[in-house]
Structures are given as structure tokens and as C-alpha cells.
């Protein structure tokens, strides 16, 4: 979306507010209570717009930064087939970033502004991508655990009240389930290989399991904005509910892989009908999210370098679009 389009959207929303603020609010409330979709042209409360802009753009940034730990292994994947699969996965993540930036900008903030927030270090992205991928097994653990957690988180977002976000998530989730299967398959082969390969798979799961559980965000009592997001039908389940669902899903999968989840407190609770699990290291989470993880600096340096090295591509694309527009105008005029 360009700046005039963004201004137009804002003007439409301001006009609605000026004419009959209460009627606009009532219509929005009705859409939410009927579990209908809010579309870009509809009036929406500023808080709803801001919350979604932040959430969707952070999600887009996570997809883009998330390409780095895996791209690192494209040239070192153990076979041509593995390279091709990994390359396709990393390319999918770039696509997810693009769908999500497109959804975010329908809320009125242009893509270059959102991108600049990331480059300036003002926008967050998922803390998991600040961990390094040290071995080939880490690529398996990322696919199985990180994409697995993303699926748990994102399937309910397919029903998010904001139309463009929900629709983007439908396609993303389909691709994420393919990603999780490729991770599973890497770990399965390693855990059924030599003792060294099995150990490598176990080490990778040991490193990524805790950070993957933290991807669902802080415990419910420390997540003050969740309630409002649930009232707006953006979120459908709380952080702890989703985390529990993920743990319950992963235990049998780990058993099938022949690997152990690194949590001595993990135990089936007959009464609750769920697995109990141990306390997570929230100090580590806070430290990584505030910039002190093992790879935060490297990730941002790489992103900034890629952005400036890609300037010529953006200029060429803009010039091509300008020429095509002039060409088409000439044809229409002729
Ligand atoms: Fe993705
Ligand atoms: Fe993915």
C-alpha cells in the first residue's frame, strides 16, 4: 500500500468516526459478537488497529529473520535432496513474511515503515530465532519443535477476526505442517542412525525444547494484553492453553522418534487429562527478547546488510513498474 492509499483508509475511518462514532463502534461490536470478520474498509477502534499492526508485523519480521538460522545450512545439508528441501522451506518462510506484510499494511501502515521499525531495532521478532543452528540435527529440531509450536499457535489464528490476517494464516499453516514433517523426518533418520547421530538428534532437542515452549509467550498472569486480544477474537486461546496443547502433542511424537524431552517434571496427570511440565526459564526469555541472546546482534547485522545490498533490486523493480505504467498509459491514450 502506498501513502495516499493509507491516507485514504485513515480518512474513511475518521469520517465514520465523525459522522456517528457510536454507530461505527456498535457495528464493530456486532461483527465481533457474531464472530464475523472485520475487513480493511470497516471502522475499527484504534486499539484494535494498533494491536493487530504490532502483532502481524512482528509475525512478518519473525518469518524473515527466521530464514537466517536455516539458510546457514543450505550449503552444508548432507545431500542434494536435503538442500533442495531446505531451500524450498526457507523460500516458504520468505513468502510467509510477504503475505503478512501485505496483511499488516491493509491496517494503514506502509510496508517500508514496518520494515524500518525492524531495521531500527524498534520492532520485536520471535526470540527463538536468536539461537544458533549448530548442527544438522538442529535443522531437524527447528522443523519439528519450532515449526510445530508455530502451527499450534497459528491454527487458531486462521479464525482471527481480522480478515486479511486470518486468510494469510490459512495458507501459512498448510506450509508449516510440511515444514514440521521435514523436521520430523530429519530427526527420525538421525535417531535411527549411528549412536553418534542419535546423540546429535537428542542434543538438538535438548537445546530447542525449552525455547520452543517459550514461543507461546509469557505465562497468562504476565500477559496483560491477552485478555483484550481474546475479547476481540484475535487470539482464541491463552498462552498457557496453547503451550499445554503443544506439550500434549509432542510427548507421543518424541516417543515415536525414540528421543527424550528434556524435562524431568514431565508426567501424565490423570486428573487433568494433560501432561504436567516443569517451570520454564523466563529470565532467559526476557534476556533474549531484550537483545542479549546468542545471535541477536548477528541477526540484525545480517538483516541490515541484506536490506542495503538489496537496494538496487528495489530501485530496479520500482523503475520497471514506473515504465510499465507509462507504457500502459500510452497504450490507453493511443
Ligand atoms: Fe513460516
Ligand atoms: Fe515454517
UniProtKB/TrEMBL annotation:
InterPro entries named among the record's database cross-references: Aromatic_CoA_ox/epox, Ferritin-like, Ferritin-like_SF, PaaA, PaaA_PaaC
Keywords: Oxidoreductase
NCBIfam families on file: PA_CoA_Oxy1
Gene: paaA
Pfam families: PaaA_PaaC
Protein name in UniProt: 1,2-phenylacetyl-CoA epoxidase subunit A
EC code(s) of this entry: 1.14.13.149
GO MF annotation, one: phenylacetyl-CoA 1,2-epoxidase activity
Organism of provenance: Rothia amarae
SUPFAM superfamilies membership: Ferritin-like (SSF47240)
A GO CC term attached to the entry: cytosol
Amino acid at each position: 500500500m502506498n501513502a495516499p492509499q493509507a491516507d485514504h483508509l485513515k480518512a474513511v475511518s475518521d469520517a465514520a468516526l465523525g459522522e456517528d462514532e457510536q454507530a461505527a463502534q456498535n457495528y464493530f461490536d456486532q461483527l465481533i459478537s457474531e464472530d464475523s470478520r472485520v475487513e480493511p474498509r470497516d471502522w475499527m477502534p484504534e486499539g484494535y488497529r494498533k494491536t493487530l499492526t504490532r502483532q502481524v508485523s512482528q509475525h512478518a519480521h519473525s518469518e524473515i529473520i527466521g530464514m537466517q538460522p536455516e539458510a546457514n545450512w543450505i550449503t552444508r545439508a548432507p545431500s542434494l535432496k536435503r538442500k533442495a528441501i531446505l531451500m524450498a522451506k526457507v523460500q516458504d518462510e520468505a513468502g510467509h513474511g510477504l503475505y503478512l506484510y501485505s496483511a499488516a499494511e491493509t491496517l494503514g501502515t506502509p510496508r517500508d515503515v514496518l520494515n524500518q521499525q525492524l531495521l531500527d531495532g524498534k520492532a520485536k521478532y520471535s526470540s527463538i530465532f536468536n539461537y544458533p543452528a549448530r548442527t544438522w540435527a538442529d535443522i531437524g529440531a527447528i522443523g519439528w519443535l519450532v515449526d510445530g509450536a508455530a502451527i499450534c499457535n497459528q491454527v487458531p489464528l486462521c479464525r482471527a477476526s481480522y480478515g486479511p490476517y486470518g486468510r494469510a494464516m490459512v495458507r501459512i499453516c498448510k506450509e508449516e505442517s510440511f515444514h514440521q514433517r521435514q523436521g520430523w523426518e530429519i530427526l527420525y533418520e538421525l535417531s535411527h542412525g549411528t549412536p553418534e547421530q542419535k546423540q546429535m538428534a537428542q542434543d538438538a532437542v535438548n537445546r530447542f525444547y525449552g525455547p520452543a515452549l517459550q514461543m507461546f509467550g509469557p505465562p497468562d498472569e504476565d500477559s496483560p494484553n491477552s485478555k483484550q486480544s481474546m475479547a476481540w477474537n484475535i487470539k482464541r486461546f491463552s498462552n498457557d492453553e496453547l503451550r499445554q496443547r503443544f506439550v500434549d502433542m509432542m510427548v507421543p511424537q518424541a516417543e515415536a522418534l525414540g528421543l527424550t524431552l528434556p524435562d524431568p517434571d514431565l508426567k501424565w496427570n490423570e486428573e487433568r487429562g494433560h501432561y504436567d511440565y516443569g517451570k520454564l526459564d523466563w529470565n532467559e526469555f526476557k534476556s533474549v527478547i531484550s537483545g542479549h541472546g546468542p545471535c541477536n546482534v548477528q541477526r540484525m547485522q545480517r538483516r541490515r546488510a541484506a536490506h542495503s545490498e538489496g537496494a538496487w533490486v528495489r530501485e530496479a523493480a520500482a523503475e520497471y513498474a514506473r515504465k510499465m505504467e507509462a507504457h500502459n498509459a500510452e497504450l490507453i491514450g493511443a
